[in-house]
Amino acid sequence: MNFADAEKIAASVLYEGYILYPYRASSTKNAQRWNFGTLYPRDYAESLRPAEPFRLHAEFLVSTSGVASLDLRVRFLQLVRKQAGTAQEWDEGVEQTANFVGLNVAELVGKEVHQDAVLERSNTVANSDTEQPRNVKKLSGSLDIGAQEVQNGLYRLKLEFSNVTPMANPSTCSRKDAMLEAFVSAHVLLGVTGGDFVSLLEPPAELEPMAAACRNDGVFPVLVGEEGQRSMLLCSPIILYDYPKIAPESAGDFFDGTEMDEMLALRVLTLTDEEKQEMRTGDDRARRILERTENMPEEFLSRVHGAIRSMRGVVGTESAPAATAELAPWSADWDPTAERAPVESVRVFGVELRTGSRVRLWPQKQADIMDMALKGKVALIEAIEQDYEDNVQLAVVLDDDPGREFGMMRQPGHRFFFSPDEVEPLEHA
Fold this sequence. Notes:
By secondary structure, this protein is α+β, with helices and mostly antiparallel strands. It has two domains: 4-236, no CATH class; 345-425, SH3 type barrels (Roll), CATH 2.30.30. The protein has ten helices and 18 strands. It has helices spanning 4-15, 42-47, 175-178, 208-212, 261-269, 273-281, 284-294, 300-304, 369-374, 404-408, and strands at residues 55-63, 69-84, 88-104, 112-116, 120-121, 141-151, 154-163, 184-193, 196-197, 220-223, 232-236, 345-348, 351-354, 358-361, 378-386, 392-398, 416-418, 423-425. The strands form four sheets. It has a six-stranded antiparallel β-sheet with strand order 5-3-2-8-11-10, covered by helices on one side. It has a five-stranded antiparallel β-sheet with strand order 4-6-7-1-9, with no helix packed on it. Helix 6 (273-281) crosses helix 7. It is globular, with a radius of gyration of 24 Å.
């Protein structure tokens, strides 16, 4: 399977959080790794309380009318300790890949196949002229995969990829040292020949129960490639939509916040000469960011300024036709600082909802994993807010959120927004 159409997205997943602005090893925020999807050696992970993850678990659907086969590519970063610049210690990433090809889907039914991973190490940095680091520890991984035919021609596959690297003294090993034997930003690319993957985010109506039964831990499968293509899947540790894309304006990776190119480019240019020197002599990827930013063409910032990539069409139904969005022309009379009249109540299904009312959540778009997780949850309306386009949003706090008090304090991660047509009043709750 040729994964070329998915490699750029997979590389973004691989390096997201790898090194954060200001891209210096001495920076406090870079003292600890921020990568998603870290799988520790099993011996070390199970010695901790609570235990840390040592494997990823993915389940997905494949439909076929004939013989279907799978190719898998597991990728992660292995960290290698080196001295960065002025004797500053830094753990640099080396790409590791394991390939599993030609797995017959039908032959996986009713049994679990176990295969040890043969890891293939890339250079320290792709196309780098620097020497590959010495003393790269040998890591060990394993794949377990099986299938179940849930209906004629439809299979649910289950795979687990584990870090089984042996450790001599796991209970006394520090987390920092354990990271040198961890699989960092681990993810899986899958390709199918002779069949199609089924979207777990927006499955056909008749397959929704089967899609909902798929359990994923540590990663979530999304379709990748060209829009409408169903031959490739990315099991990502970062929440993504189906068919994620890299913005065409992006000139390269910044590893920090998934492509805030304009802001990060401007910030890099404001670094002092001493800070830039540490970038140059530290991590090779940080050096490349600096070189690219200092030599970027004049039109780069104007190209990325104000670019919007988050809007996507809404899948229509008979009761709710597909929507299209148009940006209203800018008006010199528009004052973003003007006071907005408070919204005291909103009527939903004939019921007057106010701050303190309780509702059940029914997200309509089912656009991401969070929508799926909150479906059917009971919540309290913390506030009724209105944006500058007069759209009303209900700010809610979940009844069963262990951090409910943080939501009432309006802390991020514990307070969610829904439109009035996405809630059901609970009059007697």
